[in-house]
Design goal:
Layout (H helix, E strand, L loop, with lengths): L6 E7 L3 H12 L2 E4 L4 E5 L5 E4 L8 E5 L3 H10 L3 E9 L2 E7 L5 E6 L2
Parallel strand pairs: 1-4, 5-8
Antiparallel strand pairs: 1-5, 2-3, 3-4, 6-7, 7-8
Length: 112
């Protein structure tokens, strides 16, 4: 179960999604759930996460869960964070992305 403001998901870039999936399946036995041609979620890999062919960043995206997305966004902004993507919808919920003072990008999602 997702917990408020706890790390909940990690998303990696996959410029070669089929090859990336094949690599992790062969190397570690990971399986995937495909959500369209550009996204594959991890299945039974020990951590919730996925590979995104549309993500332009080579860095992993750590994603926190929120029970109140708008309040979390306001807290991030109030603490000096900068939005890189305001709240948007995706299959299963909504989320936003921000950077911290060191330039690390994170996301916050909610199923509400």
């Amino acid at each position: 179960m997702s917990e408020h403001h706890k790390i909940d998901y990690v998303e990696w870039q996959a410029t070669a999604l089929p090859e990336t999936k094949a690599f992790y399946h062969q190397a570690f036995g990971w399986n995937f759930i495909d959500y369209g041609p550009t996204y594959a979620a991890l299945s039974e890999a020990g951590l919730d996460g996925g590979f995104d062919a549309d993500n332009g960043s080579a860095k992993p995206l750590v994603i926190l869960y929120s029970e109140n997305l708008e309040a979390s966004r306001d807290m991030v902004l109030g603490a000096g964070g900068h939005l890189t993507q305001d709240i948007f919808s995706f299959p299963g919920g909504r989320r936003f992305h921000f950077t911290d003072p060191s330039g690390n990008e994170l996301g916050v999602w909610s199923d509400k």
